[in-house]
Amino acid sequence: MTDIVTVTDLVKRYDNGFEALKGVNLGIREGEILALLGPNGAGKTTLISATCGIVRPTSGTITVGGHDVVRDARAARKLIGLVPQEVALDGFETVMNVCRFTRGLFGKPQDDAYIESVLTQLSLWDKRDSRTMALSGGMKRRVLIAKALSHQPRVLFLDEPTAGVDVELRKGMWETVAQLKAEGVTIILTTHYIEEAEAIADRVGVIARGEILLVEEKDRLMSQMGRKELRITLARPVQTVPEALTRYDLEIGPDGTLVYRYDATGQATGITQLLSELKGVGLTMTDLSTHQSSLEEIFVGLVHDKETEDRQAEAAQ
């Protein structure tokens, strides 16, 4: 699968010396959904803004569909749809006219049939003649998506598209995202709802302090970095780990349970031996359950490690 967006050694440094992006390298494959995760201030919006031509990079290059976003800005921008965090719409215009106008800005001929299909897909067709000021917050966010799709882009950036949107509407938006992917649109989204990224993304990128920490297939990331926990409920809860079991990675969990952490991808988990040794120390098991590390836990761990590393580097200077 070829890359439709290529980011190479991208640096964005502001006049006050703050470096929002520090040599970012990223390839986004045509037709994929890439979830870009990171804490506030990590550089997600700056990266999107640079790719969309809103922010000019200090150094490095970005190409979209082979077009450099600085040297060939018009051609690159025609391939991109952007749904920003902020809801910015002309409150006096109708939903239909907002989409028509945006389509015209990109040099596309009027095509009300296409716009009708987009509005229908987003459950907005019955609001086509409504002024945007009269719409709810969730409806306005749908209009932003319709506006971004009006010129039939090949790449769609969704910057926190479901912020402040109720659960039902959020679910509808992700169904729309899945449909767009089926139609061949490449989608890059940032979200604080990590469970959504876990549900719909093909790959996950993690950015912190202006650096890409990781870009990986979601399923491979879960299998490589996710760890499992075996939670052992005992007939008689314990307060400490028995001396004979200290060689295992055990902790005392809620209600005196034993929690055993292990690598789910390893050939030998050690579970069978651990369970047999429980009897030898006089413990009786009444129940077992397992817990797989979530994407959120992996993400938090990566960001924490990066922040710790940076603090140590700063202290050593």
From TrEMBL:
The answer to whether the entry has keyword Transcription regulation is no
Q: Which UniProt keywords apply?
A: ATP-binding, Nucleotide-binding, Transport
Q: Which domain of life is it from?
A: Bacteria
Q: Which GO terms describe its molecular function?
A: ATP binding; ATP hydrolysis activity
Looking up SUPFAM superfamilies in the UniProt record yields: P-loop containing nucleoside triphosphate hydrolases (SSF52540)
Keyword field contains Nucleotide-binding: yes
ABC transporter domain residues: 5-234
> Which SMART domains does the entry link to?
AAA (SM00382)
TM region(s), chain numbering: none
Pfam family, any one: ABC_tran
This protein is called: ABC-type multidrug transport system, ATPase component
Q: Which organism is it from?
A: Wenxinia marina DSM 24838
